[in-house]
Amino acid sequence: MPCSFFNEQQSTSSAATPNCSFMMFELLTDVTLLTTETSSMDEIVTLCKAEYKGNTIEEGRIAEFQQTYTPETSITWYTRDCFVYRILNKALRVQNIEVLLAFRFLIKDIYEQLKKLQQNQHTNLVTVYRGQILPIVDLQRMHQNNGEIISIHSFLSTSYDRWQAMGFVLSSPQDHNLANVLFEIECDQCSSSLPISKPFAHINEVSFFPSENEVLFTLGSHFRIRSIDYDQERRLHIIKLTFVSETQEIKNFIQRNTLQLPSHLALGNLLHQLKEYEKHETYYKSLLTNLPENESKAMVYIVAGNGAREQKKFDLALKYLQKALDIHNTMVPRNEK
Fold first, then answer.
1. Domain-wise residue ranges, the chain
2. How many C-beta neighbours within 10 Å does residue 96 have?
């Protein structure tokens, strides 16, 4: 289960702190959800066809997706056992920015559908469960961050049914490198004075598998680790989490460490600071294909050009900076140039 932790005692996002990974994913989530520019159906179809070339079953599903998809079917497609779930979750696990930007419209549609479902369900206090087989090293990270906030780097599927969730892990073969874990998640929507920016909802009416009694949390949901216990009889680690809406501490931390830059610029800046040059270049190339010719795109060209210059890719830097100048010249009235 890909995740990161937010240590409230850390004030910076340097590569040496756990908060760096946390902030990286927060910014990536913002870029996919909050930017007005959306990816196109053609992008996602082209990517998926390349991934499943020669697989006639998935090729048929991709064609069906292209012909029938609507925002109202986003969760149905995500919960279906097919290319959407596999490609998107793999991209989230490895933070493949190019793929995530291609899937941006689908991610946004799932978010909006969860938001609508949550508003209609009027549920305040619920407890849900998730059975998970974790590598021992990930369980150790949970122990090290007991009491801290955890961000889940995917959509999180849970169940109202404790025994169903527990049965998933107890039926798995034993492996000394893995740990059987039951997450108990308490959600109180009335506990925060801030609006809920990470919706969750019971999705039986829109799921491809309506009988599974599933509650789905949106991408990047936050939880506080309350306790970690061990059931000796069942050989089961029980991790109790509490759903956390956006806190003022997190908002302040992000604003302070991004110098209040827009998310799409702050993410590129952070990638550059971390010397993730390949991701930095891929990110800006993908971003620039979706931005309209305006001041925002010119700024992205400038930032990308400066990044290329620092990597001594001078031809690329000159290309980006020239494009920024071209956009600027088309926007400035002739008598002001």
1. 3-11+122-247, 31-115, 259-336
2. 17
